[in-house]
Description:
Pathway: Glycan metabolism; pectin degradation; 2-dehydro-3-deoxy-D-gluconate from pectin: step 1/5
Order of helices and strands: EEEEEEEEEEEEEEEEH
Number of helices: 1
InterPro entries: Pectin_lyas_fold, Pectin_lyase_fold/virulence, Pectinesterase_Asp_AS, Pectinesterase_cat
CATH topology: Pectate Lyase C-like
Domain Pectinesterase catalytic: 4-171
Structural class: mainly beta
Keywords: Aspartyl esterase, Hydrolase
Number of strands: 16
Amino acid sequence: MVGAQAVSLLVSDDRSAFYGVNLYGFQDTLCDDRGNHFFKDCNIRGTVDFIFGSGKSLYLIRVITSQARESESDDTGYSFVHGKVTGDAKGAFLGRAWKSSPRVVYAYSEMSKVVNPAGWSHNSQPERAKTVFYGEYKCTGEGASPSGREPFAKQLIEKEVQPFISLDFIGATKWLLPPPKI
């Protein structure tokens, strides 16, 4: 069907690593479904929720997301480190509360003016503002200004961000191999 959404990649296993992959879609480009994943030097493009699911992943890429953690006890979430948020749109959210307790962190990321000044969305469900974990740490660029951010989003301090910016976030020190040399 012309104009319909279609997933470009579905990742449902544990301990997957992606290097230099380009994924293009419109809505729901990457379904980061479940398991621990690592993405480095990848380009993932889309318009709406183009990274979504219940995985626990460390991204060193460009992104905007919709994470699907349903409970604070679920050990899932997305961490975007040293990435870029760019595009042609206006008013893009860094994440929206697709499910009740999403957990998403951006650290050391460059954010262009494409980012909505509010930064984040509770998805028209104000009660989710109490259960989301949205954090930012030392981000730069026109879209990174903390003034105007939703009150439920946190500007993290170093101690709070540490668990999210380490390979230990996804247990990768036990399974991640260096990328192959091609």
